[in-house]
Amino acid sequence: MKKILIVEDDKSNLDVLTLIFENESHLVKGLSSGKDFLKNVLRFKPDIIFADIMLGDYNGMQLCNSLKSNSQTKSIPYYFMSVGKFEEVSKSFGAAGYISKPYELSDILAVI
Predict the structure, then answer these.
(1) pTM for the whole thing?
(2) What would the CATH number be for the domain defined by 3-111?
(3) Where are the domains of the chain?
(4) d(Cα 104, Cα 107) in Å, to the nearest integer?
(5) CB neighbourhood size of 7 (10 A)
(6) Exposure of 25 by Cβ count < 10 A (0-12 exposed, 13-18 middle, 19+ buried)?
(7) Of residues 10, 90, 77, the one with CA closest to residue 41
(8) Are 3 and 26 in contact (CB under 8 A)?
(9) 3-state DSSP assignment of residue 52
């Protein structure tokens, strides 16, 4: 069982991802804002993070920078999620990878 943190401001996407991971017996914490991410990442101590690139208050690059600049969190695999092609962007920010929307179940499960 892995502890998975999801940051997604679209409630329906957050609900779908949460259900997918919970059905695979993982512990999931879903957040809808970057501010909530910054408050909870150290408390929850996730094994892996999935974060939307475009959030209302932050963007995924800011969150990834915050994560990678902290010695307590820099080794946590971080995956960007968005519509479009952001593979190169995700690599340049030190992310472990990128998941394209709409989500393919096989792509999501392959990551964990």
Answers:
(1) 0.88
(2) 3.40.50.2300
(3) 3-111
(4) 5
(5) 26
(6) exposed
(7) 77
(8) yes
(9) strand
